Amino acid sequence: MQNLEELVTVPLHAVAHGRAGDKGNRLNVSVIPYEAEAYALLAAQLTPERVLALFAHRCAAKVTRYDLPLLHAFNFVIDDVLEGGVNGSLNLDGHGKTNSFRLLSLPVQVPRRLVRSPA
Amino acid sequence: MTDKARSRTLTTMFRLGNGAGFSGDRIDAPGPVVDTLIARGGPAAIFFEVLGERTVALAQLEKRRDPARGYEPMLERLLEPILEKCARNGISIIGNFGAANPAGAARAIARLAERAGLGSLRIGVVEGDDLAANIDLAQLEVVDADATLEQGGSEIVSANAYLSAQPIVEALRSGAQIVVTGRCGDPSLALAPLIHHYGWAADDWDRLAWGSAVGHLLECGSQVTGGVYYDPGFKDIPDPANIGFPIAEVSAHGRIVITKADATGGVVNLQVVKEQLIYEVHDPANYITPDVTLDFSGVSLRQAGADRVEVLGVRGKPAPERLKATVCFEGGWLGEGEISVAGPNCLARAKSIAEVLLARLRRRKLKVHSRVDLIGIASVHDDDGGTLWRAYTGPEPGDIRVRLAVAGAEHDDVDQAAREVLALLCCGPAGSGGARWRTTQRIRTQSYLVPRASVSPRVSVKPAREWR
């Protein structure tokens, strides 16, 4: 009776972890739910459009999502977000490594029992 | 496959350790990896990956200043504690510490070896990645991810092809106990000793993919054992001040287990291995290396004990026709300046500093592109226009550091712009202090695809005493 469960809105960080990497002016961010059960819920909510909007102020051009169902993981590839990449950017974080936590700040709706609180 | 290789296939399991994941990694990491490889026994190698995209260009600039240098600056510190142990226990060492000067690195290793009484240590050098002398960029296609970066124009500092594992294999076959390369595929450093040990064919795509996947997972060192992973309260690891570097166990039949050095901190669990498997990957079904195209789409993971994760389902497809080459250009100058404010009304004072700095650059007509960050409000997630900090209204933090960054073609414009931060010590708002500024040369990179026929790797293997 999952559809009757109470849903709460939390930052993605409360249900998933991830890591950012760069190649040139392209960033990739993995998103990996702690609980396999959250994978389908997140698949419906983490649309490329929502992720693109999160990086719109940095002129991101396109977001492609690759799904890895065997690993219960997503890989978001974000084009042209690094303002010239590590060599051209004026950003302190030219590699874009901190951007995993920008994506992990996105609000998502999940059942309360999937929400992690700090140990 | 030779008879010798076939018998190894049946009887052994190969262990591969990583000793560094970038230039600047912890220099005390390789010791526990080597000690663990020795304690386990059996055939083993350790590899070091120390060349970022720009590292070769920075090394090239250093070589211009001193022709004997231009290789990994921490080379001696990384190798001295392990060189003799590895030599006496038959553990091969492979590393791209050559940067812009692989032969120079070999001479430095030879000096270390002779000091340790290892004058007969066989040192192999792989060269031929340096294309700067005869590259014609107009004839080459730009790599997809770089298509929107600023193109060509300024002077080339370095141009290097990513070589495959094969020249390293050739050096190992010639008896090299340590192999120094310049630019090559990062996973190729790990694949080479596996090809050499098991006698894998150069078109056995699945086996090459297993070895390259191991290289991909290990090439950033601690990133698969807890580095870039721990998040207090959510993803905790033991002893983050002493993260153990990774070791992979690889059987001839492709059983891959990722583990780490004994008696160290860090962790090897499903979460950290998943993060590193996807790290710097775009399409998981097509991860391109010089040796093989990897397909991670069928990969699954299994926790196979404490700090042991088994990797299943890696597949391989043919290697790309062309090799990637990264070209580094002179990229003008970067100027940076920072100053702090704290306490009551610091948000308004910080915003005022930002506006004053930008007004000063306009007033002096300095030819620079600029950006201001309010560190503590919004910086690394912001854009050059400051969308996030401009929209921020509170609550006010206790402490804000304002950072100006400028880029330009002329050193003087950039330096004068950065010094505007210093001038705030007297001309700025109340209670601003701790100004710092610096101007540094920039390197710009662009990757191209080059035909394999235009790249000719060279391998030389000699005892240490003959490298002097």
Outline the low-pLDDT stretches of chain A.
none
Number of strands of chain B: 19
Average of pLDDT of chain B: 94
Q: State the total count of DSSP E strands of chain A.
A: 6
Strand line-up across the major sheet of chain A: 2-3-5-4
Given helix and strand content, the structural type of chain A is: alpha+beta
**How many domains comprise the coordinates of chain B?**
2
In whole angstroms, how far apart are the ends of chain B? 36 Å
- Structural category of chain B: alpha+beta
List the secondary-structure elements of chain A in sequence, H or E. Answer: EEEHHEEHHE
Task: Please give the largest β-sheet of chain A.
Answer: 4 strands, antiparallel
Shape of chain A: elongated
Distance between the termini of chain A: 29 Å
Query: Any guess at the CATH architecture of chain A?
Result: 2-Layer Sandwich
Helix content of chain A: 10-25%
Q: CATH first level of chain A: which class?
A: Alpha Beta
Question: What can you tell me about this protein's structure?
Answer:
The complex is a heterodimer of chains A (119) and B (468). With 119 residues, chain A is of the alpha+beta class. Chain A has helices at 38-45, 48-54, 85-88, 100-103; strands at 7-11, 16-23, 26-33, 62-68, 73-79, 107-111. Chain A has a four-stranded antiparallel sheet. A two-stranded antiparallel ribbon of chain A has the order 1-6. The relative contact order of chain A is 0.30. The model of chain A has no long low-confidence stretch (mean pLDDT 92). Chain B folds into two domains: 3-128 and 163-320, no CATH class; 328-444, Alpha-Beta Plaits (2-Layer Sandwich), CATH 3.30.70. In chain B, the strands form three sheets. Chain B has a ten-stranded mixed sheet with strand order 12-13-9-8-1-2-3-7-4-19, with helices on both faces. The longest helix of chain B is centred in the C-terminal third of the chain and has 18 residues, at 346-363. The model of chain B has no long low-confidence stretch (mean pLDDT 94). At the A-B interface, strand 2, strand 3, strand 4, strand 5 and helix 3 of A face helix 10, strand 16, strand 17 and strand 18 of B.
